[in-house]
Amino acid sequence: MKALIRTMVFSLGIVGFSVSAQAESTEPHAKATGNPEAGANKVMLCTGCHGTDGNSAAPMFPKLIGQNAKYIAKQLHDFKGEDGKEPARPSAQMAGMVMSLSDQDILDIAAFYASKEAPTSTTDASDEELAIGERIYRAGNMETRVPACIGCHAPNGSGNALAGFPALAGQHAAYTIAQLEAFRLASQYPDDNSKGRRNDGDGKMMRDAASRLNDRELAAVAAYIAGLR
Question: Do 35 and 80 lie in a common domain?
Fold first, then answer.
């Protein structure tokens, strides 16, 4: 019982901190709204990688279907870079796609994907791997100070639309692994912006969490997420 209480306190403390950090990073675009019908006409360039409705069939491309609009909008702005600054999430592949998008285009595209149903869950992981992933996702690891994923991404992987924390349920395991590895790499090279992914806010929540996962835990969490509904 004491261990459970410690886990809950640890997870809730992390949530409060990370919600604050995320709110700061998304505030500039938080007040406007998008039109999903207008967005349907603006996602044509996205379909080649992400599918006609955002349900990507290729494991290296994320499923956008059902993702909350606030998170998608932030990522598109981070890919684009603004006010003369370098992109917060550099990507040669995405740079050309977002270059000509206006703020309203981004909101409309985000609204389109958010209006869709969540993706179908699939996983071929072993029971042992899923058990490891579930334990990390739901309770974290107190010994290595890995926070529970449910704190920000909800028990069912639906995320937190208000805070802009992404929905994870049903996401390709290969994509989730790649992102966790990118966050971990950024943590290993804090002064080299060319390495890894570091657009998780000033709190460095994902960089810190990913840096504390070993390879087996990382892959297991991704497998468990892929099977969430």
Answer: yes
Q: Are 32 and 218 in contact (CB under 8 A)?
A: no
Residue 108, φ and ψ in degrees, nearest 5? -70, -40
Which residue, chain included where needed, has tokens 């087996």? 216
Classify each residue of 88-111 as buried b or exposed e, where b means 16 or more C-beta atoms within 10 Å of its C-beta: bbbeeebeebbeebebebbbbbbb
Q: Please give the chain's pLDDT, 229 residues, in tens.
A: 444 444 443 443 334 334 334 443 444 455 679 999 999 999 999 999 999 999 999 999 999 999 999 999 999 999 998 888 899 999 999 999 999 999 999 999 999 999 999 888 889 999 999 999 999 999 999 999 999 999 999 999 999 999 999 999 999 999 999 999 999 999 999 999 999 999 999 999 999 999 999 999 999 999 999 999 8
Looking at the fold, whether 107 and 125 belong to one and the same domain comes out as no
Domain of 176 in residue numbering reads as: 11-20+120-226
Domain boundary, last residue among 79, 114, 149: 114
φ, ψ of residue 165 to 5 degrees: the values are -80, 130
Structure tokens given for 100: 């000509």
